[in-house]
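Marked as duplicate of an earlier ticket. Keeping the data here for the record.
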Amino acid sequence: MEQVPPEIEALFDDASGDIAVGELDAAIEKYRRCVAAVPDYFDAWHALGMALMKTGRHPEAIEAGLKATELNPNDQLAWSSLSLFYVRNDQIKEAESAGVKARILSWGGKIAREGDLQRDTETQGSGDAEK
């Protein structure tokens, strides 16, 4: 993951404060700015998904949740949240699939092996030069 600049961390914290006082739209705008500045900012993608779900924007929440699970496929909370986003969007089959992945992680299993994650990161970096 890229290093998160202090000003983006401050923006993330400000967005989280907005959530605490019920300013969901303001939080969403700030979380979007965080992920635009640092595209692999897992916490911001996850928080964006949660805020979008709370405002009823379920398809957008799913997109953010998918990005979070892509960035950190072994994060149990990310898969549980994605499952919830799917449920809220009446996509039960997808919700069950994401829920199973969360359960596997709760038992100590892995969705992706650490070596696979490292290779994927290296491949993505070298693949850009070929395009």
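See parent ticket for discussion. The chain has one domain: 6-130.
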